[in-house]
Amino acid sequence: MSNIFREFIQKVGSGSHTSENLTRAEAAMAMKMMLLAEATPAQIGAFLIAHRIKRPTGEELAGMLDAYNELGPKLQPISQPVIVLGIPYDGRTRTAPINIITALLLAAAGQPVIMHGGDRYPTKYGLPLIEIWQGLGVDWTNFPLDKIQQVFEKTGIGFIHTPTHFPLTQALWEYRDQLGKRPPLATMELIWCPYTGDAHIIAGFVHPPTESMFQVALELLQVKKYTFVKGLEGSCDLPRDRTAIIGFSSSKTQELERLHLAPREYGFTSKNVPLGTRAELIQDMQSVLAGDESEFMQTALWNGGFYLWHSGICPDIQAGITKARELFSSGLVAAKLRELIW
Description:
CATH class of the largest domain: Alpha Beta
Structural class: alpha/beta
Radius of gyration: 20 Å
Strand content: 5-15%
């Protein structure tokens, strides 16, 4: 048993009136002790559930990310600006994800992208990114980190599979299943950046208070460019059934700039594509890559148009939609996927 870790439990687990927040240094130490199994299983479980009940602060998330940055894998800088997409680790269960198509589109347009994720995790056990990539013919679990770096430099796309490239995290995911709740680690990982260069962090969220936690943590980490998307199932995917709510860092003030984007104003119907089987999703993705018109293509164009504009490739969203359609119909996005199949 660790007496130091017991003190952290006492601070966060003393109840609504007397519990205290951890400092950034304390949160970093607590995270390292959990990753390195220096705390006992009983202590780790107690801490995770107590911390969830208390709710994390931005400073605590920054400290946890300090530990991830010290112990976790990192891709090395390239000469271009990079986008890091933060997407929930327990996968999708209701709506078809478009983010991998978005990443391929951005890379085909010259905007490098890094993604990261694990396997099917509690509490949703939804469809994870790694299984979709595998269905498209790319198995990132076969690549060691130095190979990921080579692929990233060549193609503009990198993927960190946490069980393979950051195995210290694996034991902690067992606690999610046993506790039946997502611990604050799940929130923290949405803004984790497995890259040593300057990056534009794009993270999805569900609950509005998450935005302020993200912003505080990233400012403490001196990340200056970030975007938060109230997306489908907490992802970075823009919805079609409601107005998309987006906040992003401002170069002029410390306040978030705010966008409210209505799909119908850009000619899109208010319908999200439901998630069927993985095989059906892969077939729909292959259809988009072939340039075929479909409901899923509408989702791809809506998301692609926004991200091509937001990354500075196109002057406005409508131009981004036009550019996305051109990239799909020309076969350049499909060619980008073929570059990844070794």
